[in-house]
C-alpha cells in the first residue's frame, strides 16, 4: 500500500536534512513524501529544495500553527495510510515503514502505532526517555493514556470519514485527534512493540513544564468537544505518566531493526 509521510517544519535547518534522508532511505517501495514548511527564515526551505526531485510535494507558506500545517499535508496526500514525522524526528531504521505496511495488511487495521524514544539533541543514540505505549485498551484513555503521535499511522479513509486535526489547539491537537478516532469512533488499531521513532528532546511539545497548564486545559477541551466525559483525574494522570518514561526508571527499549 502507498504510505504518505508528512513532515512539518519551521526554522528547522539544524535537523530537517536528517529527517528527509531517513524517509527517503526507507525500504518500503511505495512512499509519498510531503514536506510542509511554514516559510522558515533560517534556510530550511533551501535545504528542502535540495531534495525537490525526491520529495513528492513541497509546500512553503505561512500557516496558523502546527496542526494547520499538518492538515495541509493531509489534504495533499493520496496514500492509503498517513503518518507524520516532524523535522526533528527520525525513524530508528530503514525498515520502519515496511513493518508498518505489514502490520496494516496482516491485521486489517485502521491504524498502527508503536513506541517512541526521546534522544539527546546532539547525540541521537543517547536515549533519555522511553515511551512504551503498550497494548491498546479503550479504558486506558481514562487513565491518561495515549500512543505517541509520531508513531501513529492511520488510513486516509478514516481521516476523510472522521475529520482531521482541529487547528484551534496549540498543544493537544494530536491528543484530540487520537481520542476522537480510537475512543469515540472505535477505529481498530494494532500495536507494534518496538521503538519506531527517535524524537530529539527540546521540541515545542517537550517544554511541558512551562506549557503544561495550557496543555492540561486543552486536554480537557478535547474531551468536551467530543461530548465525552473523562474521570476527574484523567488529565492529571496524562503528564504524570511521563515521569516513568525516563530511562533510569524504565530502561528497556526494544528497537525495530
Structural write-up:
This protein has helices at 16-24, 44-49, 66-76, 96-107, 156-162, 173-184, 208-225, 234-240; strands spanning 3-9, 31-37, 57-60, 81-84, 89-91, 111-119, 127-131, 153-155, 189-200. Strands 1, 2, 3, 4, 5, 6, 7, 8 and 9 form a 9-stranded mixed beta sheet that branches. The protein starts with a strand and ends in a 17-residue tail after the last helix. Helix 1 (16-24) links the parallel strand 1 and strand 2. The model has no long low-confidence stretch (mean pLDDT 92). The protein is an alpha/beta fold and 257 residues long.
Structural class based on helices, strands and sheet pairing: alpha/beta
Label the CATH architecture.
Answer: Alpha-Beta Complex
> Helix fraction?
25-40%
Spatial gap, N to C terminus: 21 Å
Number of separate helices:
8
Tell how many strands the DSSP assignment holds.
9
Summarize the structure.
This protein has 257 residues and is α/β, with parallel strands linked by helices. It has helices at 16-24, 44-49, 66-76, 96-107, 156-162, 173-184, 208-225, 234-240, and strands at 3-9, 31-37, 57-60, 81-84, 89-91, 111-119, 127-131, 153-155, 189-200. Strands 1, 2, 3, 4, 5, 6, 7, 8 and 9 form a nine-stranded mixed β-sheet that branches.
Question: Which terms summarize this structure?
Answer:
Spore Coat Polysaccharide Biosynthesis Protein SpsA, Chain A, single chain, 257 residues, 8 helices, globular, nine-stranded mixed beta sheet, alpha/beta
Amino acid at each position: 500500500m502507498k504510505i504518505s509521510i508528512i513532515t512539518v517544519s519551521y526554522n528547522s535547518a539544524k535537523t530537517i536534512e536528517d529527517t528527509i534522508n531517513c524517509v527517503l532511505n526507507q525500504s518500503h517501495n511505495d512512499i509519498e513524501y510531503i514536506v510542509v514548511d511554514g516559510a522558515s527564515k533560517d534556510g530550511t526551505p533551501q535545504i528542502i529544495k535540495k531534495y525537490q526531485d525526491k520529495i513528492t510535494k513541497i509546500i512553503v507558506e505561512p500557516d496558523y500553527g502546527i496542526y494547520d500545517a499538518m492538515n495541509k499535508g493531509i489534504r495533499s496526500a493520496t496514500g492509503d495510510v498517513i503518518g507524520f514525522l516532524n523535522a526533528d524526528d527520525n525513524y530508528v531504521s530503514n525498515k520502519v515503514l515496511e513493518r508498518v505496511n505489514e502490520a496494516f495488511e496482516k491485521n486489517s487495521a485502521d491504524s498502527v502505532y508503536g513506541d517512541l524514544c526521546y534522544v539527546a539533541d546532539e547525540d541521537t543514540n543517547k536515549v533519555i526517555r522511553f515511551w512504551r505505549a503498550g497494548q491498546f485498551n479503550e479504558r486506558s484513555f481514562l487513565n491518561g493514556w495515549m500512543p505517541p503521535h509520531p508513531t501513529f499511522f492511520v488510513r486516509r479513509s478514516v481521516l476523510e470519514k472522521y475529520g482531521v486535526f482541529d487547528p484551534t489547539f496549540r498543544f493537544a491537537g494530536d491528543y484530540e485527534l487520537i481520542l476522537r478516532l480510537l475512543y469515540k469512533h472505535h477505529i481498530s488499531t494494532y500495536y507494534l512493540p518496538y521503538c519506531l521513532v527517535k524524537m530529539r528532546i527540546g521540541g515545542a511539545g517537550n517544554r511541558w513544564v512551562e506549557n503544561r497548564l495550557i496543555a492540561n486545559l486543552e486536554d480537557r477541551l478535547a474531551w468536551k468537544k467530543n461530548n465525552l466525559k473523562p474521570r476527574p483525574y484523567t488529565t492529571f494522570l496524562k503528564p504524570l505518566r511521563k515521569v516513568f518514561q525516563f530511562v533510569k526508571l524504565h530502561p528497556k527499549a526494544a528497537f525495530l531493526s
